[in-house]
Write a structure and sequence with these properties.
Layout (H helix, E strand, L loop, with lengths): L2 H5 L39 H16 L3 H11 L4 H16 L1 H12 L8 H16 L4 H15 L4 H12 L3 H8 L7 H9 L3 H10 L4 H11 L6 E4 L6 H8 L2 E2 L6 E3 L10 H4 L3 E3 L2 H12 L8 E4 L6 H13 L2 E5 L3 H10 L5 E4 L17 E7 L14 H4 L5 H18 E11 L5 H13 L4 E4 L18 E2 L2 H4 L5 E7 L2
Parallel strand pairs: 5-6, 5-8, 6-7, 8-9
Antiparallel strand pairs: 1-3, 1-4, 2-3, 9-12, 10-12, 11-12
Helix pairs in contact: 2-3, 2-4, 2-6, 4-6, 5-6, 5-8, 6-7, 6-8, 7-8, 10-12, 15-16, 19-20
């Protein structure tokens, strides 16, 4: 590794970033072996930057998921350690910051980014991110970006050089002052540019936070920080404190099963993961699953249902606790490939996986009504609560996604309330704080279910000492308050 490459390590400035972008036309054929676009001209000198570029291009061209495609690219290019970490920071950071980067590139180029050839556009995004959001020296960012453009869009190298030099002449703060709306006249628009989130998402966050834009800004800042990987030590198979020592991490702040990884590397390489003693799961996800099992219950407590089980994190935790309590878990997952993931995640546990639609309660003989003691509905949602972990998703999601999702959420909640026995409990969970996906869905779903329900105060079901859980009976977790994904939890008891 060269001394310049060591100096190129990115620095987290605390500024937000952004993903996504305009439509991306398929302009190049893909290599059948690697899945990557062929290079023309001489390749850029730095393989980490090349890997980051290819991940960014795949996200915009093929609607790929950054975490999946980048992992494949890093393996294909045999990048590890600092090079892999550098590529990951560049790819994820650029995808988070795309909205603001595009405004800056457009101003420096004197044209809309939609008019820039897609390969050159993604290379410029990557270069601009290095200039404005990292400690990469300006000359290295400019030269490497021009080399990259020369390899993917040879005719645009001169244009890229001019744009990059134009961007480098102004600091990030000065660029933001220049392109962001006046906060007094358009506070949400200003937050959108400064903190790299679409305005509609900011409005939904602000509504869930009671209209407090200062608190919303703190959330947006936290949304742009690379998240810590959380492990779940499976009860009966691992102890969180011992697991933390084993993997070089620290025990989580709230969940008794949580371990925070404090170093890089792939969690899949950990022996505890390979041996089924632990799995990767956000601490907030652990907390809401455990809350279902903490709800007081009279009568039988042996049949539990996970109505939307894929990819299997919550089912793995429920199954581990079920093994200790003498209970059985039915895990429902409609997508075949996700059902297989649930099967893999629950091997050796008292979990039966049903590859079916959770809305078939009462029609499927394996899902009879009034037959389960506890039911978890981890409903499909916009995922706005996990934007830290999915850098491109904030730019993919649109307000038009909400109606079909909320209809599905209501239908699943109705099915859950029919599946649980009188006296049993249902936990409705989403990884989104959007009020339509949380409070509105719970209110409408319980009303349409045709059964009588009472809300259970969810706050006492979480570990003592958790701050800012609100007035109840539902709970909304937050990245900037709890260090978790923004998980929503409502617990309902069927009374008739």
């Amino acid at each position: 590794m060269t001394s310049e490459h060591r100096a190129d390590r990115p620095h987290n400035t605390g500024r937000p970033r952004r993903p996504g972008g305009p439509g991306y036309g398929r302009t190049q054929d893909r290599d059948a072996r690697t899945g990557r676009a062929p290079r023309s001209g001489r390749p850029p000198a730095d393989p980490a930057r090349q890997a980051a570029y290819e991940a960014i291009a795949a996200v915009h061209r093929d609607d790929a998921y950054a975490n999946l495609v980048l992992a494949d690219i890093l393996r294909g290019m045999n990048l590890h350690g600092r090079d892999a970490a550098f590529a990951t920071e560049l790819a994820y950071g650029t995808l988070r910051a795309v909205g603001t980067l595009d405004l800056i590139i457009a101003a420096a180029a004197g044209r809309e980014v939609a008019r820039i050839d897609p390969p050159a556009r993604d290379a410029l995004r990557l270069g601009a991110y290095q200039l404005l959001f990292t400690r990469v020296p300006a000359h290295a960012a400019v030269n490497q970006t021009v080399d990259l453009v020369r390899s993917v869009a040879p005719g645009a190298a001169g244009f890229a050089n001019a744009v990059m030099r134009g961007i480098s002449e102004t600091s990030l703060d000065d660029w933001l002052t220049r392109i962001a709306p006046d906060p007094a006249e358009n506070p949400v628009g200003n937050l959108s540019v400064v903190h790299n989130h679409p305005e509609w998402i900011i409005r939904s966050f602000a509504e869930a936070l009671g209209g407090d834009l200062d608190d919303t800004a703190r959330l947006l800042i936290e949304d742009n920080q690379p998240p810590t990987v959380h492990l779940c030590a499976r009860p009966g198979r691992a102890d969180a404190v011992e697991l933390a020592d084993e993997v070089g991490g620290v025990p989580g702040a709230f969940s008794p099963y949580s371990v925070y990884l404090t170093h890089g590397g792939s969690p899949a390489e950990l022996a505890a993961i390979r041996e089924g003693r632990a799995h990767v799961q956000d601490e907030g996800s652990q907390l809401v699953a455990a809350a279902l099992l903490a709800a007081p219950l009279e009568g039988s407590d042996s049949r539990w249902l996970d109505l939307c089980a894929g990819p299997g994190g919550k089912a793995g935790l429920l199954g581990s606790i079920a093994a200790l309590r003498g209970a059985d878990v039915t895990a429902v997952e409609v997508a075949d490939h996700r059902a297989r993931l649930v099967e893999q995640a629950t091997q050796g546990l008292p979990v039966t996986v049903l590859p079916t639609d959770g809305r078939t309660v009462g029609r499927d003989p394996d899902l009879p009504e009034e037959s389960f003691d506890r039911v978890l509905v981890d409903a499909p949602c916009t995922g706005l609560g996990s934007l830290r972990r999915r850098p491109e998703s904030r730019w993919r999601r649109k307000p038009a996604d909400l109606p079909p999702l909320t209809r599905l959420q209501r239908e699943l909640l109705v099915a859950a309330l029919r599946a649980v026995r009188p006296g049993g409990v249902v936990a409705y969970v989403t990884c989104s704080p959007h009020m339509v996906e949380t409070q509105v869905t719970v209110t409408e779903g319980s009303r349409r279910s045709g059964v009588e329900v009472d809300f259970v105060d969810a706050r006492p079901l979480l570990p003592p000492g958790m701050p800012k859980l609100g007035p109840g009976p539902t709970v909304q977790l937050w990245p900037h308050r709890h260090g978790t994904d923004a998980m929503f939890l409502a617990v309902l008891r069927r009374t008739s």
